[in-house]
Automatic annotation (TrEMBL):
<dbReference type="GO" id="GO:0016020">
    <property type="term" value="C:membrane"/>
</dbReference>
<feature type="transmembrane region" description="Helical">
    <location>
        <begin position="20"/>
        <end position="44"/>
    </location>
</feature>
<keyword id="KW-1133">Transmembrane helix</keyword>
<dbReference type="InterPro" id="IPR007343">
    <property type="entry name" value="Uncharacterised_pept_Zn_put"/>
</dbReference>
<dbReference type="Pfam" id="PF04228">
    <property type="entry name" value="Zn_peptidase"/>
</dbReference>
<keyword id="KW-0472">Membrane</keyword>
<protein>
    <submittedName>
        <fullName>Neutral zinc metallopeptidase</fullName>
    </submittedName>
</protein>
<keyword id="KW-0812">Transmembrane</keyword>
Length: 284
């Protein structure tokens, strides 16, 4: 996908620390270190003990310079190829979604892209890179350790720039849900009906996949040959059924099957219309 280079003055980016798990979780997520590790082990098929030790990474984005001073947006975004891609995607996502919010009369606020290495602490609690990228509504941050992309390519066979853009666009989809109130509505519904919590979570994840597809669909003039296939491969690889290999029953799925995720991404890409994503969540 041929995205324009980011403008440092137009995006919100910061470093989130690194060097291993920061120890314990704060408010928001409400999960301790071990719980986070076990969840990620089920979802990503990784060894939870390697997560708890922090682990190494091939491509990381340090939050500070050698003298300990904070790094600029330009420095963070050019730390490696993956960081530059993420910043390019963030700018494109902002430029795509802000006008949609304006037309709908909904206040828009850009999210913050937070680069970290190994482990970090967000307003939603602590996290390790083995968890993969995540969105924290408490600080409207999209958190990522860019070494995850190497893991995604090696372990899941989901490589290519569009596969990486899909990851960022999916997390941005959760930001959209936060701004529109869908995320709060889902959390409320889960509290009222705990037995349906996983099913409701799947709906929210599929809508985020759909929103990722809508972004691509609205920028189809920038899509290269093979991008669609990269997106479908990534969506298939991160389906709950594919990641757990049958070790987890369908009622415990939290993100959707490979087929569901592929269909959601494709629906958004083919139409470029965010209204099609309403089919996944009926709580507005």
């Amino acid at each position: 996908m041929r995205l324009n280079r980011f403008d440092p003055s137009s995006i919100n980016v910061r470093g989130g620390g690194g060097g291993g798990f920061p120890g314990g979780a704060g408010g928001g997520i409400g999960c301790g270190t071990l719980v986070i590790a076990l969840i990620a082990a089920l979802v990503f098929g990784v060894d939870p003990t390697s997560m708890l030790s922090g682990g190494g990474s091939e491509q990381t984005v340090p939050a500070t310079q050698g003298d300990g001073s904070a790094r600029s947006v330009e420095q963070l975004c050019t730390s490696n190829q993956y960081a530059t891609e993420a910043c390019n995607a963030l700018q494109s996502l902002n430029q795509t979604w802000q006008p949609e919010f304006q037309r709908a009369g909904i206040p828009f606020q850009q999210p913050t892209l937070v680069f970290y290495s190994g482990g970090t602490r967000s307003s939603c609690g602590g996290a390790t890179s083995a968890m993969g990228p995540f969105y924290c509504p408490a600080d409207q941050g999209i958190y990522i350790d860019t070494s995850f992309y190497d893991q995604m390519a090696r372990q899941l066979g989901a490589g290519g720039d569009f596969a990486r853009y899909y990851v960022i666009a999916h997390e941005y989809g959760h930001h959209i849900q936060y701004l529109t109130g869908v995320a709060d509505a889902i959390r409320s519904a889960q509290g009222q009906n705990p037995r349906a919590a996983n099913q409701l979570q799947v709906r929210m994840e599929l809508q985020a996949d759909c929103y990722a597809g809508v972004w691509a669909g609205k920028n189809r003039n920038l899509i290269d040959h093979g991008d669609f296939e990269e997106g479908m491969t990534a969506a298939s690889a991160i389906g709950d059924d594919a990641l757990t290999g049958g070790r987890v029953s369908a009622e415990n799925f939290t993100h959707g099957t490979s087929r569901q995720r592929m269909e959601a991404l494709q629906a958004g890409m083919e139409t470029g219309n965010d209204a099609v994503c309403d089919r996944y969540v009926d709580v507005r």
